[in-house]
Amino acid sequence: MEVTRKNYKDCLNTVYSAIEEADFLAIDGEFSGISDGPNASALTNGLDTPEERYTKLKKHSMDFLLFQFGLCTFKYDQTKSKYITKTFNFYIFPKPFNRTSPDIKFICQSSSIDFLASQGFDFNKVFCHGIPYLNQEEEAQLREQTEERRNQHANGVGTPSYISPSSSKEHVLFYLILPPFLFCKERYIQISKVDEEERKRREQQKLEKEQEELNDAVGFSRVIHAISKSGKLVVGHNMLLDVMHTIHQFYCPLPEDLQDFKEVTMCELITYTSLAELEKQLKESPFKPPQVETAEGFLSYNTAQEQLHEAGYDAYITGLCFISMANYLGSFLTPPKAYISARSKLIEPFFNKLFLMRIIDIPYLNLTGPDLQPKRDHVLYVTFPKEWKTSDLYQLFSAFGNIQVSWIDDTSAFVSLSQTDQVQIAMNTSRYAESYRIQTYAEYIQGRQQEKEKLGQTAKTWGEDSWVKPHYISSTTCGFGYPRCTRAAVHCFVNIINELISFPDEEENPQGTDPSNDADGTVTWQQASTVQGRKGRKKKKKSEGLSGLVNHLN
Amino acid sequence: MEVTRKNYKDCLNTVYSAIEEADFLAIDGEFSGISDGPNASALTNGLDTPEERYTKLKKHSMDFLLFQFGLCTFKYDQTKSKYITKTFNFYIFPKPFNRTSPDIKFICQSSSIDFLASQGFDFNKVFCHGIPYLNQEEEAQLREQTEERRNQHANGVGTPSYISPSSSKEHVLFYLILPPFLFCKERYIQISKVDEEERKRREQQKLEKEQEELNDAVGFSRVIHAISKSGKLVVGHNMLLDVMHTIHQFYCPLPEDLQDFKEVTMCELITYTSLAELEKQLKESPFKPPQVETAEGFLSYNTAQEQLHEAGYDAYITGLCFISMANYLGSFLTPPKAYISARSKLIEPFFNKLFLMRIIDIPYLNLTGPDLQPKRDHVLYVTFPKEWKTSDLYQLFSAFGNIQVSWIDDTSAFVSLSQTDQVQIAMNTSRYAESYRIQTYAEYIQGRQQEKEKLGQTAKTWGEDSWVKPHYISSTTCGFGYPRCTRAAVHCFVNIINELISFPDEEENPQGTDPSNDADGTVTWQQASTVQGRKGRKKKKKSEGLSGLVNHLN
């Protein structure tokens, strides 16, 4: 269902009840750009810490506009043994509410706009009919202003007994339609008298109208509030950016600190999990395509041919992938279960984990606890002249086997060696080098920490003014909003499975908490070794694309 | 004629010849926003100096995108005694040329976007089919890169004798279509041999293709170059912003200094004049509606009902107004002349004068000389607590008759008194005030100058980071791109007429320079007193809207 400013109010109850009845929700956003500073490969350096990634996205991605929000609700139908879906495509635009409301400025990135344009994205629909919104502070301000005006009127202050038609809208309360006695362009005054009862009736009407206008101004934020209040499971694809934009645009400015972000995100009761994928891979063994059906009166998507790149479709696909992955977890149970509910305990270990795109060794951001601390003993921090290219680094480290280069900026990069014991040798050989300099990762982190302490909180990694200068698109940019990083996403899924496997004999589905009423109330996890055995039997059937998954289960 | 990326190359010769044959050109731009900092009333303070206005527009308006460029060419047809017009609407978008080309970021202002949306502006056409462009530096860089690659190939460096289909486009030179011997998704290598003659032929083909791609990338900038090279008279409406955007987007970054801007503008051979208006007013006496006809095959506009707010239409209307104004000048000649050519000497005093919108006492920016230095003896600079409103200022100065308030920021404003002799009294009475402070304009300017000298060139009037914060739309905003400041614009026109009148007996139309071949080669200006006499006779006919004009001619 396409939702714009034109049909928004009529759709609101449909949206609310879809959320209310759903077993889980899938969301996806489309943005006017990704980075106003560094290019994609520097913005998502493979060796970012979660703090660094958060800080970079906050600084370089939040001035873009989230202008399409896709919501797909999934409700399991017991009798049909399939999910019933309802997809909503919300078009969002901060149309100024009145002359005192904020005049929002947002950045567009030409590569992102060009990508969306090539996918048939309808910009006219966004800009002409987008639904407005307010964040919480703006909403509070507007309510306060309305309240203040109301009190002034109640106290008789500023209540006009006559008004001119040219005065502002909120004073037109006692305006009666009289034949204008002057037709030329000059101002005229119209006088009318009203009795006390009529005055009160109109006052009441006006209050109701004001309330409605206020709700209109809050606009799309009401949908986000409903999602948040529902407490339903929300799944997304590479959704860190979606979550950050959602908080920033519809709730409040993002906190400086990652820890505070985690708290804001949780206290808003939005429960997120990160499961992402390529839908095609999840149609293949060992996954099974999920059974779904579109609710009557809703847009039906055909996954066989890829649709327009729109947020609703992406949310739908994300939901499908979640179902496939969840059901796949069921195959490890004894006896195996074909359907795993969104409320199943099996899913819980995946809650509140946001996939960190393109970070080599930290698959997800953990919203409800400390983040993973990967060992980076094999990583070197290298500085060099700005003329150097990746090939120069390969040449420099040619003696040390395979390396992986993660560019930081023009004159520095992380170089990961394949073997940690080579690190000391590399350090030794570089001692007398003049054109370049090598530090261990530990030395680098220590240096940065010291620098940070020296500068207080003002340490800056990227130039403040860099966004207006032209930046160059890296060849590693894999599109906009929906990067095809499937392998990495499945990787992330698998990493969480690994954690999960360390909880054998975990109870699934305690009586009464799962509305899907599975026949067997309890199930047991197979031991990791058994899983390996299973996988061994399946090995010949699995597709090449899932080798990462299988490797991780070893 | 609508010109997009799709038909751009086919239209180019039509555009070139329209420019070449024209007597004058009218231009107009549509932008993605106006101000990323102060609101409209602060951006265009009525007492700005030309330097201040230039600096503010440079700082707060240049990160928006000029995404529609209207060009209307006017050619006078002797036999028909009317102008033949050709209107072009160019849609402009900085689509990245390839993966190494700049990924431009631009700001959108929601009020401006909303205004354009309400006028039916087609954003899809801009973003999907906009013509790309490069500024001079980007063009030079691209040419250099191409040249470098060419030389490398010529020297045999990097010339691949075999390539894989996955390598980048510029290396696909020797790729021959062979039946792929592997159909799966794995990479494959194709080998082909070519003889020397074939190699040279392909090399030549490649050079031509590169040249074409390079021209495609320069894109719309070629039209601007053609306008510039033509040396034709270019008229616009409130065109300071158009000129600044045109230089900034298609030529080079704007210089810091107004003086340098004047030089850049002139050295680019773009001759501009500022004549702006409301078309309707210029249909009324003493003006006459101009005789125009649309060239065959070109979009015809109906001025009776206002069209979409598009750049081509605005350029067309601007041209009509110019003709009316120019012909009106002819009515002051003895004998009066109904048609004044765009090459007439009568027009010259208006050349290179850019209308300064909403500056009270400096009607235009003079590109070819020093700017007007208005007396501001009656102006006070007042600072006060941020709670103050305009009404507080009116109350404070209630003893001094009518005042005019020009807000600078939350805590300061210029207050113009109607009588200069009141200034000293106001200063005296304020001496012991604690909540506010008054300075004369002269004191204020002196203070600023001293501050500037202290800070070097880093004096900042507006907060550096202010653009991302929400700003409030002033009620004085009169729309986007096409503010209805007609009276002020006619004012500007009239101010220039006043200057003009100080050159009596100026020769118009020296033999051989005017292709329209007027019968009388010379004419004389009437003295100012005679003009007054003429106007006196016409007084009863004039419309009320032109009182400003007539007053100025007195």
Automatic annotation (TrEMBL), chains A, B:
Reactions it catalyzes: Exonucleolytic cleavage of poly(A) to 5'-AMP
Q: Which GO terms describe its biological process?
A: nuclear-transcribed mRNA poly(A) tail shortening; priRNA 3'-end processing; siRNA 3'-end processing
GO molecular function, a single term: metal ion binding
Question: Where does it mainly reside?
Answer: cytoplasm
| Keywords assigned by UniProt, alphabetized | Cytoplasm, Exonuclease, Hydrolase, Metal-binding, Nuclease, Nucleus, RNA-binding
Q: Which residues form the signal peptide?
A: none
Which parts of the sequence belong to the Poly(A)-specific ribonuclease RNA-binding domain? 369-446
Identify the Gene3D superfamilies for this entry. Answer: 3.30.70.330, Ribonuclease H-like superfamily/Ribonuclease H
Q: Which CDD domains match?
A: RRM_PARN (cd12428)
Quick one: a GO cellular component term? cytoplasm
Give the E.C. number(s).
Answer: 3.1.13.4
Region of interest called Disordered, as start-end residue ranges on this chain: 144-163, 505-554
Q: Where is the composition biased (Polar residues)?
A: 523-532
Q: Where in the cell is it found?
A: Cytoplasm; Nucleus
| The organism's place on the tree of life at top rank | Eukaryota
EC main group:
hydrolase
Q: Which PANTHER family match?
A: POLY A -SPECIFIC RIBONUCLEASE/TARGET OF EGR1, MEMBER 1, POLY(A)-SPECIFIC RIBONUCLEASE PARN
The similarity annotation says: Belongs to the CAF1 family.
Indicate what this protein is called per its UniProt record.
Answer: Poly(A)-specific ribonuclease PARN
Source taxonomy lineage?
Eukaryota, Metazoa, Chordata, Craniata, Vertebrata
Q: Which gene encodes it?
A: PARN
